[in-house]
Each structure stands twice: as C-alpha cells, then as structure tokens.
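User: My notes are a mess, but here's the protein and zinc ion's SMILES. Can you give me a structure?
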Amino acid sequence: MFARLLAIVCLLCVSTSSGRAASLPRVETTLAVHLQANAAFSPEIRNQMKMELDSILEPAAIRIFWLDAQESRDFRSMRVELKGSCGVPNHADGHAVLGAIPASALASTSVYKDSILPSSWVNCDTLNRLLLSSIALQPKWIRDYAYGRAMARVLAHEIYHILAQTQVHTSTGVAKESVSAADLVSSRFVFNSEAIIGLRSHNRVLLGAAKN
Ligand SMILES: [Zn+2]
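Assistant: No problem, the inputs look usable. Here's the predicted complex:
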C-alpha cells in the first residue's frame, strides 16, 4: 500500500509541474456548464475536477465557464447533474467494481433523434464503487485529488459527445467506450488525436456559424 501511495504522490508532482510548464493555446470556444450537485459535494473534489477538465480540454481549445444555479450567459451551455454522493470515504467498503466498465454506466447524455443534447448526469455511486479499491485507504487529500480528476475525465467524455455531436467512441483515450479505475486515476488520460480533431472541427463549425 505504501508503494501505491508513493506512486500516486509522485504522479501528482509530475502532473502539476508539467501542467504549469505547458503553453496555453488560443481559446476558441467557451462552454458554460451548470453543475447541479448536492451540498455534500467536497470543494476539494470540485476544484480538482475543474483543473483537470481545463487541462483535458486545452488541446481542443475549449474553455469551461462554470455557472451557478440558473445564471445564464451568452455562451454555448450544458447542464450536468451529479447523482448520488460523490466521494469515497476513508476506509469505505462495499461492492467494488473491478475491471473496465462502459462509460455509459458512469455518465450519460440526453439524445433526441440524431442530436446530442447539452444535458448530462454522472452516476457518483457507480464511480465510487469503481474507484473504491484504488483510493479508499488513501489519505483524504489523495482521495479528493484522485476523485476530482476521475470526475473530470468522466465529464470530458460527455462533453466530447455534446460538442462533437457524435455517439461514436474513439479506440483510445477519454472518448473510448469503456474505462477502468486505472484509466481514471492514472497520471495521464486524455483525448486521443481523433477526438481532438473532432472537437476542433466542431469548434470551427460553431465559429463559422457565429460569423454569418
Ligand atoms: Zn460515450
């Protein structure tokens, strides 16, 4: 367990330093997100989720703007509901999910005919059970860090469906069909080039439409 703890701590260091060193590309699209969560949603998890999501979407030139409650802005927007209690308590036990599971078991996005609607939900109970064996025995700051990062990756998957307007998955990366706990807590799990191209292409369509 100590080895695993040490590994996660070291991964934190690599992730933090590389993120700060990266140069920021030009922001082309802003996506406003209404996040609906219960009062128990940890600020530490929330902050980590936001930072990781910014990092994942940066190569696609997409910036997230977080909205409170019913606040509305003149941005393209989506709504996300966090269902259940999001977080893994210390020494929690329960029925852990082992191996890879369909991303659709963790989160889903509404579809109407051929359109992907900007309304998603995350099933935190399933996410808790998937991450249970990886983080339940870790200190709180590591559990919060890992959980927030995992949530960001799950949410990025749904954002891909919405912005690229596709139900098709990629073979690797955040937009693939099934994910494991290892994917969600690893030091690096991002969109592959195919997904980035899909997101960037859609950005150009949006920008072109806005100019007309
Ligand atoms: Zn999917």
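The mean pLDDT is 83.
User: Great, I'll file this with my notes.
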